[in-house]
Amino acid sequence: MAEAVAEEKKSAWKVLGLALTNRKTGFMLLFGFASGLPFALFLGTLFAWLTEAEVDLETMGIFSLIGLAYAFQFLWSPLIDKVNIPLLRKLGRRKQWIVPAQVLLGTILVTMSLLEPKSQLGWFSLLAGIGAFASATQDIAINAWRIDVADEEATIDILSTVYQMGYRLSSLVGGAFGLIIAARIGWPETYMLMGGILLAVGFVGLWAPNASQSDADVATESELQVRALRKAGELVPSIRNRALALVAVLWAVAIGIVLTFMIMSMTNAPEDRPNPTDFTLNIGPWIIVATIILPALIAGWLASQKKQGKHLLAADEAPATGGAYALDHLYRALVLPLVEFVGRLGWSLVLILAVVLTYRICDAIWGTFAYPFYLGELEYTNDDVAFASKFFGVGAIIAGLALGGLMLTTIGRMATLLIGGILAALTNLLYADMALGGANMQAFSDTVGFTYLITQIPEIGDPELAKLTITIAFENLAIGIAGAAYIAWLSSIVSKKFSAVQYALLSSLTLLVGTLGRGALGEMIENQGYYDVFILTTWIGLAAAVLVCFEWYRESRGKAAAGIVAPEAGERVPAE
What we know:
The protein is mostly helical. It has helices spanning 2-20, 23-52, 57-60, 66-71, 77-82, 95-112, 121-149, 156-185, 187-204, 215-228, 237-267, 276-307, 322-334, 336-345, 348-359, 361-377, 382-410, 413-435, 439-448, 450-455, 463-492, 499-528, 530-556. The longest helix is centred in the middle third of the chain and has 32 residues, at 276-307. The two termini are 33 Å apart.
């Protein structure tokens, strides 16, 4: 028995070593960096530049619209899955979107560096908006690329971990380092440097490997999927087209509302602009209902009709032509990914959505209130918080990701997901102690010698900073483990055939639930204080861990039914 365990561990380490030296892993680190850098530059560092340029806060509010591009990226994900870009399709199914997006982002950043924010704010905001959409599009394609190229060496677990490492490193480069560089060489030069980095990444990305399945095979498979819709045993076209019409109307209305909101925000006078927070809180949930919930119910009805043998073709029909052919392709792009997802998972989809909506809710919401807590409630200085959260904190989260990747390889995906979820939930109790003064965290820091180490750092040296730093370190270590497992699990439940759409839908839910929960959490902080909030988020995190246990049981009943798209260490991919 002991020899078998030792051999299994040896095999896991071998798999990990092969994965880390794999060419795909190197490009995944690069793409993760390219994915996180625009997010940091458009949604964080940019506000520091605008503040220094004396742009008023009301006008600055327009740039908060940039976040909507990431939250609602699933609205154009079917294009990424289905449409080929003329002249660029030879780069590969995903790279035809990734490389141009990176080049466009680099060009936008360089162009912004040539503008003066206050006097050329119109052009500045337009470029930032286009950049946000390009960045969100890049994210869709990179996530799909990660799922597509995963294999037995570069597993989805390792690729997901390495992706997040690159993403976190870029947040440090675009955030803390960006501020340091700007203080020395200026904002225009800093953004020109960052733009040059993205242009270089776009050039290097040309050599990134494509999926083992050739693009010609993918195109053929896509065409075969469309033709299969006319085979005996498939739903009759009239039923499919009614479902397509309903889903298309729902998506068109949702896209129209988002575009109208953004146009009004960018063209109206400041006093007439709609409020982004109110839009997200009041309209956001209805967009989710229109583009995810109702289409999923329609897809479930279609899957049930087919399973019950209703409204099916009795014999093969001739291949569609003209308008009918276009409708079949649109059905394949917009509805079939949901039909496949619901049909494959059935009622298990409810459990999966419950995990998606709860597992990362604590850190998704907390980011907005972290600085008010550190600076206002705990009364630390900007330099203290920068040291604890940006430098030490980012190091801790990268360490957590590395540990998470190791755990994924050695103990498996679901075990790591459960442990990471429990640890992330319990770290809220550390913040609860900080809200009461941090006596326990200070005592712990003193006991292990961490306080002494902090006092030896030049220009820092405050023993009171030790308890904040060690609290953030524990939280980020847990978030790193949980994040590595969560992205790997999320990637594992989608189908390679529809990876862009299905993953974008799930990841957007994660972003939106955090956005929607901030209003309620902010009100709770105002009324009850931070301590009660940390106790509540602890319980939410533990509830998510319980849901993970149910999901683990579901997957253990049949790996093939779980929709695994890439193996865990030592496993083979089940046939679809």
